[in-house]
Amino acid sequence: MAGTWHWKEGKSDSRKLLYDPGNWGDLFKAAWLTRILPAMNPDQVCDLFAGAATYELSSRTRSRMQIIADDLLSQAMESFVKDAVWPSAATLCRSLLVPSAKVTVCDLDEERQESYRHQTGIAVYEPDDAWVVLSDVTKQHNTDGIRSAVCACLSAETGLLILDPFDVLAVWREVMPVIISAAKKTTVLLYVYNRSAKNEERLRDYRAFCSSMEKELGGISCMRGRIAADGFLPKAHHELWLMGDGVAKQTELAATLEAVTMKLEDALRRASCFSVR
What we know:
Layout: H1 24-40, E1 44-47, E2 54-56, H2 59-68, H3 71-82, E3 85-87, H4 89-96, E4 102-105, H5 110-114, E5 122-124, H6 130-139, H7 146-155, E6 159-163, H8 172-183, E7 187-194, H9 200-217, E8 222-228, E9 237-243, H10 251-272
Parallel strand pairs: 1-4, 1-6, 4-5, 6-7
Antiparallel strand pairs: 2-3, 7-9, 8-9
Helix pairs in contact: 1-4, 1-10, 6-7, 6-8, 8-9
């Protein structure tokens, strides 16, 4: 449905990643998940833009975690840090949830999808386009394979659907109907890479996106958080939208998500607001 994003240069196995695993956006999402999962205790989790199961843990990410100094995040990441890897959201969810909770992944890239085959307790299907999958499920066109797992998540008593596309703002008019449809059935965690600070056109489009989301959500509850993409003259921001009827009941969760969001934003500022040499 949307254009394909390539995660590596060229075609060799050693090609360079076009993505910084454990960046501030990943840390932001992980910090939220360490709060969301205990509060909601979902019995079904689907991550439809799952990425690879794990990535090599960089020194940059280690430094970022030290700057944040968040106990919950550090505890959740302890075993992964020991193994020198950064976990995907699905891998992190699997480590934090009870064994009976079902975690399902989908990714359009065969190499990333295949990396989950050796992960215990994670259901893996054939590579597929997440937006097409969601469209089929919401329109009840096809309920085989990964679509059956998404259907189960949407109908679960406490489901969590994770959507972390590369650039949802580039296709939001096309995909908003399926996002809203999913949020009416289960809890949705949506990641948005917000580059509206770059120019007036992007800012207008972002405002239109926010206005349309708020209108289409109607009475559905939503929590939103935003941090800068980096501490040095940021021209982009990482955003998380937590949407769903069950969200309204989570008053304590709102407070803890606000606190950790402010903590990350403060860490970003501390890392670059002053220097001496």
